[in-house]
Design brief:
269 residues, alpha/beta, Rossmann fold, eight-stranded mixed β-sheet, 10 strands
Length: 269
């Protein structure tokens, strides 16, 4: 694992190069995540690909600018693929990273050879949904006094490994543990989905695409199946026993469905 920074036009991104000598593969984490949260997935992906993850703007150790539009995230991902020599790349995106991935593929088809979209529907956000995010952030007892407290706060019956995920995105300061992101920046990222409908861009994704849902996640199976149907070369997979962060909750089942798709992708190529 090689950690470094990538300077783009208006932002410096933290990157994690997991190695591998095959074609390029870019990993895009979800809201609040960071590149290292993909470590377990990257460990087996390097058998087939040169695997790189980025901390997207406002996340992890990347810069924290003012612009959190989807356009900015997609611009960053496109530049990263080109500057890191991954073109054309398979792109795997979780949640927010999935939205960024399909918009990237629709707008820059030459940069993307295949997509895996993990547990994110294409629905626009409502004011009520935004308020629920604000209320949730307000409930966090920051600073957390220990990583055990972090795990206890975030673990849930349907996502028993969420505590591990959130432990990964905390940093220790003199008064305790704080998130590696600003709540305001996360809300700005989400607010973009209240004014822009990215579902029509699914029709323009031409590369082979796998849409994955965790059986225990709050996303509606009908919505994700409809997404896969809209993509000209799309297909759908359900991972039993997984919540929203499928690759954490059921890593072996996640690997099985993704590895099968990637094998098909290699044959197609």
């Amino acid at each position: 694992m090689n950690r470094s920074f990538l300077q783009l036009e208006d932002v410096r991104l933290a990157t994690v190069d997991f190695g591998g000598s095959g074609p390029g593969l870019l990993l895009l984490h979800g809201l609040m995540g960071r590149g290292t949260t993909w470590a377990a997935t990257a460990a087996w992906l390097t058998k087939y690909y040169h695997v790189v993850a980025i901390d997207q703007r406002g996340h992890g150790w990347s810069d924290k600018p003012d612009d959190y539009s989807n356009a900015a995230y997609v611009r960053d991902a496109a530049s990263a693929i080109q500057k890191l020599g991954l073109e054309p790349a398979v792109v795997i995106g979780h949640s927010m990273g999935a939205v960024n991935a399909w918009v990237l593929a629709a707008q820059h088809p030459r940069l993307v050879s295949g997509l895996v979209l993990e547990d994110k529907d294409a629905n626009m956000y409502t004011g009520a949904r935004m308020q629920s995010w604000r209320d949730w952030f307000a409930s966090w007892p920051v600073p957390f006094q220990s990583l055990s407290e972090v795990r206890e706060f975030f673990n849930a019956e349907d996502s028993p490994r969420d505590g591990d995920f959130f432990s990964e995105v905390m940093r220790e300061e003199s008064d305790g543990y704080h998130p590696l992101f600003s709540f305001d920046h996360m809300l700005k990222s989400l607010e973009d989905w209240t004014v822009h409908d990215y579902a029509p861009l699914l029709d323009k994704v031409l590369c082979p695409t796998l849409v994955v849902k965790g059986s225990l996640s709050s996303a509606k199976e009908s919505d994700l199946k409809a997404m896969a149907a809209r993509i000209p070369n799309g297909r759908y997979a359900l991972v039993e026993g997984a919540g929203h962060v499928v690759h954490n909750d059921q890593p072996e089942r996640w690997r099985a469905v993704v590895e099968s798709f990637l094998a098909e992708l290699a044959t197609h190529a």
